[in-house]
Amino acid sequence: MKIILVGANGTMGKHVNQMLALARHEVIRVGRASGDFQVKMENPQEVAQFYKKIGNFDAVVCTAGEVAFTPLLSIQDTEWHSSLQSKLMGQIHLVQQAIPYINERGSFTLISGVLGDEHIRAGTIAATVNSAVEGFVKAAACELSKGVRINGVSPTLLQDSVKDYESYFPGFIPVSGENVAQAFKKSILGIETGQIYRVR
Amino acid sequence: MKIILVGANGTMGKHVNQMLALARHEVIRVGRASGDFQVKMENPQEVAQFYKKIGNFDAVVCTAGEVAFTPLLSIQDTEWHSSLQSKLMGQIHLVQQAIPYINERGSFTLISGVLGDEHIRAGTIAATVNSAVEGFVKAAACELSKGVRINGVSPTLLQDSVKDYESYFPGFIPVSGENVAQAFKKSILGIETGQIYRVR
């Protein structure tokens, strides 16, 4: 399979990249400033140009997207804007712009996260954006044609992130990047659509 | 109770307005172009100025917010933008800007909708935005202080809207505006927070 991996150099992306390489897929690694191609996913024209360059492919996998962490009482409008543009609209652009190029029975796998389901201090933007991503996945699954599927993966705190973020996630049991990568595999190689695979 | 009702002149707002009037609450009716005050909820500065004018109050209730209905394959970026600005960010501004003015143990009640849970043709933006609103409500409930509560109401197709929208909602059993207004009442006068009242 020819698979586009956006966020390939990120904490989660590295695990997905390794899993896909082990399974001997052709992986096109995309990052903001690293990888085989540099694409700003917030920019739909840039995303469209990238896909045009690649031609056809079987899957788009996204492990990228940033959200701001700020207590509700001090969230600035610019933080809402940048978070919605990055993790929500960025992933939506990756889907919408790919539609002319993705092969029949291809798939999209987007990333949401535990903060749509459980809440931490300063996590209101993350909760809002993750919920939006999941709403998009479930609805888009009903509208895609030619057997193209779309799923989401919602990981909890990663073992790799414990050192940096543990204090923000009291009582959250971290999961291994390898296990989260398996949820991506389930989405890419499985037959389901409109699912959110929660790795907890 | 002194209650601010945003969208008071809309299909759903009229029912909430009537329910609140019957219960003898003081209702401040807000609309884009009608009501006691005209406020564009997409504009956080305008929302802040409005609240400053009103002073303290016990509840903010929103029955307003527009989303575009377009098939996934032809959604334009401008439609995403206007829908996110209206039904998501508009409602978020109503909450964030009210925090300095809302009374202790006051409440917010926002509106989402059935299209976050069940899907119809051209409903992907609605699904995304409704899910985002619900994610915001659940997270914000954990961050609000002074006993201030926040809930959402998610109505299915309204009886009043059957004539115009029936063909888009095959097999959806419509509900009365009066019953949906009761869900708003439950949120405003009840004790729960972080709930989504689904009226189906």
Overview of this structure, please?
The structure is a homodimer of 200-residue chains. In chain A, α1 (11-22) links the parallel β1 (2-6) and β2. The model of chain A has no long low-confidence stretch (mean pLDDT 98). Chain A has six helices and seven strands. Chain A starts with a strand and ends with a strand. Chain A is of the alpha/beta class. Chain A has helices spanning 11-22, 44-54, 77-96, 124-143, 162-165, 177-189, and strands spanning 2-6, 26-31, 37-38, 57-62, 102-111, 149-155, 196-199. The first copy, chain A, has a seven-stranded parallel sheet with strand order 3-2-1-4-5-6-7, with helices on both faces. Chain A is globular. Chain A binds chain B through residues 44, 71-73, 75, 77, 80, 84, 88-89, 92, 96, 99, 115-116, 119, 121-124, 126-132, 134-136, 138-140, 142-144, and chain B through 44, 71-73, 75, 77, 80, 84, 88-89, 92, 96, 99, 115-116, 119, 121-124, 126-132, 134-136, 138-140, 142-144.
Concise summary:
The structure is a homodimer of 200-residue chains. With 200 residues, chain A is of the alpha/beta class.
Defining key terms:
6 helices; seven-stranded parallel β-sheet; homodimer; alpha/beta; 40% helix; 200 residues
